[in-house]
Write a structure and sequence with these properties.
Blueprint (H helix, E strand, L loop, with lengths): L2 E5 L3 H12 L5 E4 L2 H7 L6 E6 L7 H11 L6 E5 L3 H10 L4 E3 L6 H7 L5
Parallel strand pairs: 1-2, 1-3, 3-4, 4-5
Length: 119
């Protein structure tokens, strides 16, 4: 399975996903902020990227903009935590190859479905 990268300032979300994915032997890394992610990740190719919209200093939309400018996202499955239609429209206007889900609805089955864009 592809590496799963979580970018979210909520430590409870980190804990939940770390436990969920490590039990399955899935390569997983979590970052507290978009800034930390960008400073420590040389590539996002061939991974599952899960990211929050509302983060301090550098929002999920700012990160999405930067990712679309600097990376090839064709082999990256990107899922944004939101149910807000306005936010969905903004993200999709930059690149329609993005999924949306409520953070609390994300499950192991959903992550497996995201592998290589199968969702």
């Amino acid at each position: 399975m592809q590496k799963v990268i979580l970018i979210d300032d909520d430590h409870i979300t980190h804990f939940i996903f770390e436990n969920l994915l490590s039990d399955e032997g899935i390569d997983f890394v979590a970052y507290d902020s978009a800034v930390q992610f960008l400073a420590n990740t040389p590539s996002v190719e061939d991974c599952i990227l899960l990211m929050d919209v509302n983060m301090p200093a550098f929002s999920g939309f700012q990160l999405w903009t930067k990712l679309n400018q600097e990376y090839d996202l064709s082999n990256t499955s990107v899922t944004v935590f939101t149910s807000d239609n306005r936010v969905k429209s903004e993200f999709s206007s930059l690149n329609p190859n993005v999924n949306f889900i409520d953070k609390h609805e994300l499950s192991l089955e959903t992550i497996k479905a995201l592998q290589h864009g199968n969702r």
